[in-house]
Design a protein that fits this description.
heterodimer; A: Ferritin; 0% strand; B: 339 residues; two-stranded antiparallel sheet; 70% helix
C-alpha cells in the first residue's frame, strides 16, 4: 500500500457494488459526526446505531466488490485510498448534517428509497447481493420508521421545527432524483436480473414521502430540477473535506496495519 | 406507535410518582429507622427505591450515580473525536459501537439515579452548569489514534476495577446497572488492549505513538481512583453503607498490579522510573501529583472548557428539537382525547 490512490477495475458489477458501498459509508460517516452532539441521549444512540448499520453495509459491499474485482483491493483500500473523483455515492448522502432537521430529512429521503431498494434486491440473481439485501432491508426498515416519525414530529411540532423541517426539505429535494437513475453500466446488470431498475421504485417512494410529508403538515417543493453527478464521481464541494478527514490516518501512515 | 412519546413522558412521571408516594415520611429521620436500615446493610440486604433510607444515603448515592452517568456522557467526546478518523473500517465500527454503548450506560445510570427521586433533567442541568462533576479523565485530549487504544485499555480498565465491587453495592438499582455496564465494558477493554497490541507490534512510528499515549494517560488514569484514602471525604459513610467496598488506594493498587504485566507484554514502558515490586508482589508507584488532579477537578484541566462547551452546545442547539417532540406529543394526546 502506498499513499497514492488505488486503481480500480470498474467492471459493471464492481462499480455497482462500490456505488452502494459508498452510499452507505458516506451516510454512515455523516451520522457518526453527530456522536456526543445530538439533541438528546436517545437520539445520540439512534444516530450512532443507524451509522453503525450503514458502516456494516458498506463493509459487506466493499468486500464483495474486492472479491469480484480480484485485484488485491479490500474494504479499507476502497474506503481510504480512493480520491473524490473515484467515489460513487449519491450527492444527497454527502450533504452536511446541518441542523437536526437536515439530518433527518436526508435520512428520510434516503431510507425511504433504501428500504424499497433492498427489498427488491433480495430477489437479485446474484446470491451475495441478495444476501446483503436481506440483511440491509431489516436495518433500513428501522431507519425509515425512525426518520419518518421525526419528520412528522418536527413538521407538526412547533412553528420553529416546522420552518426548519420545511427548509431542509426544500434544500435537499434536488438531490433525490439521482437515487432513481441508472446508467449504461447498470443496464446490463438490470437486464441480467442482478440489479433492479431504480426508476421502478420511484412511484412507491414518492407516495411514502408524500404521505409522511402530508401528515407532517409540510409540503414538497414545486421545483423539480434534479442535481446529478455522484454516481460518476462529480461531487459537491463537501465530499473532499469529508474524505480528507476520513482518510487522514492511512494516508499519513501508508501501509500500516491498525 | 411513536416511541418518543413514551420516552419524553417517562422521566417526569416516574420521578414525580416516587416523590409523591410517601413524601410525608420519606425524609423523617429517626433513630430506630436508622438502626434498622444499618442492620439491613450489615446483613447484605439490597436497598430498593421504595425502602426507607437516610437522607444522606439518598444524597450521596444521587451524587455518585449521576456523576457516574455524566462521566459516561462526557466520555463520549474524547473517543468520539476519532470516529471520523479511525484508521480502518473495522476499528471505526468497533469505536462507534463502543461510544453508542457508553451512551446506553449513561441512560441506565440516569434511570438508576432517578429511582432516588431526582429527574434526569435536573441532574443534567447540574452538570451543564458545572455544579456536578464527571470523571477527571475526560478532561484530557485524544491527540493520536493510540489514545483510543489507551482509553480502552487503561481508562476502561480502571473503570472496571472501580465498578466490579459496585455490582455488590447496597443500593439495588445501582448494583444491577453496574452488572450490565461491566459486561459491556470488559469487552471494550479487550478491544482497547488489542489496538495497543497491534500498534506495539507495528512500525516504529506506531510503537512510538503507543508509548506517547501511555506516557500522557498513565498518571491521569491513576487519579481516576480518587484522592488518597487519608483525604477522601466521602469514604467513611460510603464504606459503612456498603456503597464502597474497597478504598481508593486499594483499588488503585489492584489496578497497578494488574496493568504492569500488561504493559510489559506490550513492550511499553510505564512512565514511572521509580516503580518497583515489593516483597508481597505489589508494584509500588511514585507519588501522584495531586495538584494536577485538583486543578482538573476545579475546571482547569486541558479540555474542561471544551467538554462542557460541547455538551452545552448540544443541549442548547437541541432545545428546539426537544420542544418539537414535546409539542407534538401533546397535540397527539389531545387529538386522541378529542376523538
Amino acid at each position: 500500500m502506498s499513499i497514492a490512490s488505488i486503481q480500480v477495475s470498474e467492471t459493471p458489477l464492481v462499480l455497482y457494488a462500490l456505488r452502494r458501498a459508498d452510499d452507505a459509508l458516506i451516510l454512515g460517516h455523516r451520522l457518526s459526526e453527530w456522536c456526543g452532539h445530538a439533541p438528546m441521549l436517545e437520539e445520540d444512540m439512534a444516530l450512532a446505531n443507524m451509522g453503525l448499520d450503514l458502516l456494516g453495509q458498506a463493509r459487506e459491499l466493499y468486500s464483495y466488490a474486492a472479491e469480484v474485482e480480484g485485484k488485491g483491493n479490500d474494504e479499507d483500500k476502497f474506503a481510504y485510498l480512493r480520491d473524490v473523483r473515484q467515489y460513487r455515492n449519491l450527492l444527497l448522502l454527502e450533504q452536511p448534517n446541518g441542523d437536526f432537521a437536515h439530518t433527518m430529512v436526508r435520512q428520510f429521503f434516503y431510507s425511504g428509497f433504501a428500504d424499497l431498494y433492498w427489498r427488491a434486491m433480495m430477489k437479485s440473481d446474484d446470491a451475495i447481493l441478495a444476501a446483503i439485501a436481506a440483511k440491509s432491508e431489516k436495518e433500513s426498515a428501522y431507519h425509515i420508521r425512525h426518520s419518518s416519525e421525526w419528520i412528522v414530529r418536527l413538521g407538526d411540532g412547533t412553528a420553529e421545527s416546522h420552518r426548519r423541517a420545511q427548509s431542509a426539505i426544500d434544500d435537499l429535494w434536488a438531490y433525490t432524483g439521482e437515487m432513481f437513475e441508472a446508467d449504461d453500466s447498470e443496464w446490463a446488470l438490470i437486464e441480467a436480473g442482478v440489479a433492479v431498475d431504480p426508476a421502478t421504485l420511484r412511484s412507491h417512494w414518492l407516495k411514502t414521502v408524500t404521505d409522511v410529508v402530508g401528515e407532517a403538515t409540510l409540503s414538497l417543493p414545486k421545483n423539480d430540477w434534479m442535481q446529478q453527478g455522484g454516481r460518476s464521481g462529480r461531487h459537491s464541494e463537501h465530499l473532499g473535506h469529508l474524505l480528507s478527514e476520513l482518510q487522514s490516518m492511512p494516508r499519513t501512515f501508508p501501509g500500516a496495519t491498525w | 406507535m411513536l416511541y418518543f412519546d413514551l420516552v419524553l413522558g417517562r422521566s417526569a412521571v416516574y420521578t414525580q410518582a416516587l416523590n409523591a408516594s410517601d413524601a410525608e415520611d420519606r425524609y423523617i429521620e429517626d433513630a430506630d429507622r436508622s438502626a434498622q436500615f444499618q442492620a439491613r446493610i450489615d446483613a447484605d440486604d439490597r436497598i430498593e427505591p421504595n425502602d426507607w433510607m437516610p437522607a444522606a444515603y439518598r444524597k450521596t448515592l444521587t451524587r455518585q450515580i449521576s456523576q457516574h452517568a455524566h462521566s459516561e456522557i462526557v466520555g463520549m467526546l474524547p473517543e468520539g473525536n476519532w470516529i471520523t478518523r479511525a484508521p480502518s473500517l473495522r476499528r471505526k465500527a468497533a469505536l462507534l459501537a463502543k461510544v453508542q454503548d457508553e451512551c446506553g450506560h449513561g441512560l441506565y445510570l440516569y434511570a438508576a439515579a432517578e429511582t432516588l427521586g431526582t429527574s434526569r433533567e435536573e441532574l443534567v442541568d447540574l452538570m451543564l452548569s458545572g455544579k456536578a462533576k464527571y470523571s477527571s479523565i475526560f478532561n484530557y485530549p485524544t491527540l493520536t489514534w493510540a489514545d483510543i487504544g489507551v482509553i480502552g485499555w487503561l481508562v476502561d480498565g480502571a473503570a472496571i476495577m472501580n465498578q466490579i465491587p459496585l455490582c455488590r453495592c447496597s443500593y439495588g438499582p445501582y448494583a444491577r446497572a453496574m452488572i450490565r455496564v461491566c459486561k459491556e465494558e470488559s469487552f471494550h477493554q479487550r478491544q482497547g488492549f488489542e489496538i495497543m497490541l497491534t500498534l506495539a507490534r507495528g512500525s516504529e512510528e506506531q510503537k512510538a505513538m503507543a508509548q506517547s499515549a501511555l506516557d500522557r494517560w498513565w498518571w491521569p488514569v491513576l487519579m481516576m481512583f480518587g484522592p488518597p484514602d487519608k483525604v477522601s471525604q466521602h469514604s467513611d459513610t460510603s464504606t459503612k453503607w456498603k456503597i464502597k467496598r474497597f478504598s481508593n488506594d486499594e483499588l488503585r493498587q489492584k489496578f497497578v498490579d494488574a496493568t504492569v504485566p500488561q504493559a510489559y507484554y506490550l513492550g511499553l514502558t510505564i512512565p514511572d522510573p521509580g516503580m518497583k515490586q515489593n516483597e508481597s508482589g505489589n508494584w509500588e508507584y511514585s507519588a501522584i501529583d495531586w495538584s494536577e488532579f485538583n486543578a482538573v477537578l476545579a475546571g482547569n484541566g486541558p479540555c474542561n472548557r471544551d467538554r462542557l462547551a460541547a455538551r452545552r452546545k448540544a443541549h442548547d442547539e437541541g432545545s428546539w428539537v426537544r420542544e418539537a417532540a414535546q409539542a407534538y406529543a401533546e397535540k397527539r394526546k389531545s387529538r386522541k382525547a378529542a376523538a
